[in-house]
Structures are given as structure tokens and as C-alpha cells.
């Protein structure tokens, strides 16, 4: 199958391109940037020298003629673009009959009101919100396999939902909101330069208090209230979440362990037992690492992912695998 990547010069797009070229059943048909991009005409390997010899394809401008080329050459279109750009681009490719994998948050929520509140724009294609399958691969594989539009899950939500859905499914969560403290590396903010993500400026600080767009995403797909606080840390890639859960009265450690068995056979989830998840353990790896410790009715769950792999490009490839009827981990593991 032939894959086109829009936004290929960005961090998640380049990561996805490197996965696609190594995948046994995919071909990278073309890589695009915006029509005005300063990078158009450059090779992807000019921007990412670690991929010299692997990603020597040129970055093409997404102008009118590009749409004809994409119509005739692509099976899958991956949007590695900003939310609003993805919202605008997806319908055009869907009309061509392409299967679209959107790595942005443009189609993850069901309510237009949430787009206004958390994304700051009025959604122009609300009819597609119902059609989009939420791309949280371990939990929605049938819908992902069938849908024409897959809204690949957000980075922080991927870690939080895999950590919490087993407990919710088993009915173990008490009524209180779950508290999620998360730290992300700087690639989470994308490649474009800004003072807030400048190497000399970043230390460790919270942001997005009470109003980060991943709060409604986690709540919608968990079915439980959360208090989510992201932090930006001074390392390149990876997300670590420490999650404080109040369990229902008398929930035993055996019940908690039993609840997590739902993930035990998933090839891209590692249940660590007594070990502590870390950024080091997941950076450049396709996995979600999960562990927990319990004291009475208090449970602390820890989850770690690489934001560019399981949090973006890795999970997008996992969704493509599902669409092709392949095992989840094809092209991702060993
Ligand atoms: N970074 C991460 O950890 C994660 C990112 N995501 C999501 O993935 C998407 C991409 O993120 P990320 O890779 O970090 O972003 P980057 O800012 O690193 O890259 C954005 C890419 O989009 C291109 N682009 C911008 N405008 C247009 C346009 N109008 N048409 C075509 N291409 C365009 C940019 O190139 P140019 O401007 O030169 O045209 C660049 O290639 C975002 O929606 C983000 O929320 C999801 C999970 C994790
Ligand atoms: C460190 C940092 O800035 N992270 C980004 C989240 C990463 C991302 O791009 O978000 P999606 O997964 O929703 O696409 C943020 O907080 O906005």
C-alpha cells in the first residue's frame, strides 16, 4: 500500500516516514509540506541527517497539482499537521476515497463546543466527528480497521487511557476525579521555533492548568472525570505520567492486578510489575510501559511512552496495520 505524508518535515511526520520506509508492506509514495514552506524542495534527510540513505525523498509543496498526484498515487494519507490544518485537509482526501490517518486532535472530540473551548476554533466539519474512529489502537481496533477516517489518539491521552481504562472497565474507580501529573519532552511541542521551547528557556514547569485540550479527550474516552496537569521537561522525547487513583472501598490488590490482565497479551504494552516506568525505558521504543502500587484504597499508576512513537507515529502505524489486517506490531517491533 502506498502512503503519503502531509507535514513530513515535522517531528511526528519524519518519525512516521522513517517507519513507513522500513515497513514490509508499505511504500512511501510522497512527502509534503505547506505550499509556502521554507523546506520545500529539500530532502527529508537534509533536515534529519540520521536518515541519510533512508529518507532521501524531496519535500513537495502541497499546491493544487499535488492533489492530483495524491489522488492517483496514494492509498493512505497521513496528516501530521496542526489541528486546524488537518480539519481543513481531511475532507478533501476523504472525498477522493482515501483512508485518512490524522495525527492531530482535529477529529478526536465529539463536541463542537469542546473545539471552541479547548482548541479555540469553530469546527467546520462536525459531520465527520461522528464518522471518525478514535485511534487508540488496543481499545478500538475493529472501528479503526473499518473507518475511512482515523483520529489517532493524543500523546498524553494514550498513556493515561491505557493506564486507566483497565480500572474503569473493571468498575474499580471511586467517584472522585483521577489526578494525572504528566511530563513531556520538548519534541511534544513540534519543530517550529518558539521562546517557550527554546533549549535555554526550558527547565521543568507545569502548563495548561485546568484547560489543556487533552482533559476533554481523556474524559470522553475514559468516561470518568480527571484533573490533568501537563509539564514541560528539558529532555527531547518521552512522556511520563504519575496518576493518583482513589479506588472504591475494599478493592484488593488482586482485583487491580486482574483488571490489568486485559492488556497482558498486547504486544505494544509492557506491564512492569514491581519495576518503575521511566523515560529512559521508552525513548525511541514503540511501547506503553505501565506499573502501579497500592496502599489501601489509594493507587498510584505510572505510565511512560515515547511521544513521537506510541504517542504519534508509532500508534498511527499501528492503526494502519489494523486497517491492513496485519498484527499490531508489524514494522514496529523486532
Ligand atoms: N510532537 C508530538 O509529540 C505529537 C504531535 N501530535 C500532533 O501531530 C501534528 C504534528 O505535530 P508535530 O509533528 O509535532 O508538528 P511540527 O510543527 O513538528 O510539524 C508540522 C508539519 O506540518 C507542516 N505544515 C504546516 N502547515 C501546513 C499546511 N498548511 N499544509 C501542509 N503541511 C503543513 C510543517 O511544515 P511547513 O510549516 O514547513 O509547511 C511541518 O512539516 C499536530 O497536530 C500535533 O498535535 C500528536 C501526538 C504527539
Ligand atoms: C510538550 C507539548 O507542548 N505538548 C503538546 C502535546 C503534544 C501534541 O502535539 O498533542 P496531540 O497529541 O494532541 O496532537 C501540548 O501540550 O500541546
Automatic annotation (TrEMBL):
Compartments, record wording: Cytoplasm
Q: Name one GO molecular function term.
A: N-acetyl-gamma-glutamyl-phosphate reductase activity
Q: Give the pathway annotation.
A: Amino-acid biosynthesis; L-arginine biosynthesis; N(2)-acetyl-L-ornithine from L-glutamate: step 3/4
Semialdehyde dehydrogenase NAD-binding domain sequence ranges: 2-147
What's its catalytic activity? N-acetyl-L-glutamate 5-semialdehyde + phosphate + NADP(+) = N-acetyl-L-glutamyl 5-phosphate + NADPH + H(+)
Enzyme Commission number(s) from the entry: 1.2.1.38
Top EC class for this record: oxidoreductase
- Which InterPro entries did the record assign? AGPR (IPR050085), AGPR_AS (IPR023013), AGPR_dimerisation_dom (IPR058924), AGPR_type-1 (IPR000706), NAD(P)-bd_dom_sf (IPR036291), Semialdehyde_DH_NAD-bd (IPR000534)
Read off the CDD domains from this record. Answer: AGPR_1_C, AGPR_1_N
Main localisation: cytoplasm
SUPFAM superfamilies per UniProt:
Glyceraldehyde-3-phosphate dehydrogenase-like, C-terminal domain, NAD(P)-binding Rossmann-fold domains
Keywords of this entry: Amino-acid biosynthesis, Arginine biosynthesis, Cytoplasm, NADP, Oxidoreductase
**Active-site residues (renumbered):** 155
Similarity remark: Belongs to the NAGSA dehydrogenase family. Type 1 subfamily.
What exactly does this protein do? Catalyzes the NADPH-dependent reduction of N-acetyl-5-glutamyl phosphate to yield N-acetyl-L-glutamate 5-semialdehyde.
Q: What PANTHER family would the database entry show?
A: N-ACETYL-GAMMA-GLUTAMYL-PHOSPHATE REDUCTASE, CHLOROPLASTIC-RELATED (PTHR32338:SF10), N-ACETYL-GAMMA-GLUTAMYL-PHOSPHATE REDUCTASE, CHLOROPLASTIC-RELATED-RELATED (PTHR32338)
Protein name, entry field: N-acetyl-gamma-glutamyl-phosphate reductase
Write the gene name: argC
Amino acid at each position: 500500500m502506498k502512503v503519503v505524508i502531509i507535514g513530513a518535515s515535522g517531528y511526528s511526520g519524519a518519525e512516521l516516514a522513517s517507519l513507513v520506509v522500513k515497513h514490509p508492506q508499505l511504500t512511501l509514495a510522497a512527502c509534503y509540506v505547506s505550499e509556502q514552506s521554507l523546506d520545500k524542495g529539500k530532502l527529508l534527510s537534509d533536515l534529519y541527517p540520521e536518515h541519510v540513505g533512508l529518507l532521501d525523498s524531496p519535500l513537495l509543496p502541497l499546491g493544487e497539482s499535488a492533489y492530483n498526484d495524491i489522488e492517483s498515487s496514494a492509498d493512505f494519507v497521513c496528516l501530521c499537521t496542526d489541528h486546524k490544518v488537518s480539519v481543513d485537509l481531511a475532507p478533501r482526501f476523504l472525498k477522493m476515497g482515501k483512508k485518512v490517518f490524522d495525527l492531530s486532535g482535529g477529529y478526536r472530540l465529539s463536541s463542537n463546543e469542546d473545539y471552541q473551548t479547548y482548541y479555540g476554533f469553530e469546527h467546520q466539519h462536525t459531520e465527520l466527528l461522528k464518522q471518525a474512529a478514535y485511534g487508540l489502537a488496543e481499545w478500538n481496533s475493529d472501528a479503526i480497521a473499518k473507518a475511512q477516517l482515523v483520529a489517532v489518539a493524543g500523546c498524553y491521552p494514550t498513556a493515561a487511557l491505557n493506564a486507566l481504562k483497565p480500572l474503569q472497565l473493571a468498575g474499580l474507580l471511586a467517584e472522585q476525579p483521577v489526578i494525572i501529573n504528566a511530563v513531556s519532552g520538548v519534541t511534544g511541542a513540534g519543530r517550529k521555533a518558539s521562546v517557550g521551547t527554546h533549549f535555554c528557556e526550558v527547565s521543568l514547569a507545569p502548563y495548561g492548568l485546568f484547560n489543556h485540550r487533552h482533559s476533554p479527550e481523556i474524559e470522553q474516552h475514559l468516561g470518568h472525570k480527571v484533573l490533568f496537569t501537563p509539564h514541560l521537561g528539558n529532555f527531547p522525547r518521552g512522556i511520563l505520567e504519575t496518576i493518583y487513583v482513589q479506588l472504591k472501598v475494599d478493592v484488593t490488590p488482586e482485583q487491580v492486578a486482574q483488571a490489568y490482565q486485559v492488556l497482558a497479551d498486547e504486544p505494544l504494552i509492557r506491564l512492569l510489575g514491581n519495576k518503575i516506568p521511566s523515560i529512559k525505558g521508552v525513548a525511541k521504543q514503540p511501547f506503553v510501559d505501565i506499573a502501579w502500587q497500592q496502599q489501601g484504597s489509594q493507587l498510584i499508576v505510572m505510565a511512560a511512552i515515547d511521544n513521537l512513537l506510541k504517542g504519534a507515529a508509532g500508534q498511527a502505524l499501528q492503526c494502519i496495520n489494523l486497517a491492513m489486517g496485519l498484527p499490531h506490531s508489524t514494522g514496529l517491533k523486532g
